[in-house]
Amino acid sequence: MFKKRIRLNTSKLSVVLYGTLIGFLTGIVVSVFRWTIEKLLQFVQTLYLDISHGNIALIFLVITANLICFLIVSWMLNKEPNISGSGIPQVEGLLLGELKINWWSTLWRKFISGILAIGSGLMLGREGPSIQLGASIGQGVASYKRLSHNQSKGLIASGAAAGLSAAFNAPLAGVMFVLEEVYHSISPFVWVGALTGASVSDFVSTVLFGQTPVLSIGHLSVFPVQLYGLLLVFGIILGLFGFLYQKFLLFSLNCYSKIRFPKYLYGIVPFILVIPIGILWPNLLGGGNNLILSLKETPMTMKMIIVILLVRFVFSMISYGSGLPGGIFLPILTLGALSGVL
Fold it and tell me: Does the pTM exceed 0.85?
């Protein structure tokens, strides 16, 4: 009697194992990244609040701290230009084979510079840097195992999904983002690896931060059917607003290009301009998740909402257009929430 041999498809199993490892490492790195930004931002907002209450001497401390942060971040940008901005275009270029990126140099410099830029109160999001951090970890694992470029792409995509998952505790959003925005195709290996990495990364961040959603709006009442037409109108308005945002963002990049400084020094503009904003409105600083959560509890006049919306709109352009490490996803969510309140 002949025994039938069972052969395991180790390639598919390896995707799950690699995804688990990358998700675990990314979950730890991004969770520390996220926690450090939150604590630093709280400290900075406290300083600005004390200044607004009359402790004028702290202005010199804030100016000195911002200049130090600027010097550190600009030095890192000069050494590693691939850490600028959100990092998503760099990840896409890496997957397409159009960029050669040193994963370790990118990883630790993006980590530190992102904390300093976002934690200082600049209106930048952590989601883009988190995606690049995860992608760098995936690239590092692939480099350590000496995998081919095609094999490495799956691990990089898995790390990118894990990064977004840990940033917002949203594993499905991380997977869909990678498939739609980064990888631009649906492959079983990429899908399984991304889902594994995102799930494990979400588990790690959930253990560290708890099960409360990042944007916990609370109980939402059923929206009246007779008002559904307002949602259509609001969607059209936000679509036009998004188009306008893109145009102004490109305009800000064009304005910065006219400054006769090297690109890595553009950050001096937002680091200086954030100081008066922090003194006047310390609660407006940062990516905006705390501002979104406070909207339902803080009564504001329509005039105040419009002022806050304009300040956030303009300064997010100034922050992101400078090329400092940070994304625009969370700032855009904040603009959308403010538009909804308005």
Answer: yes
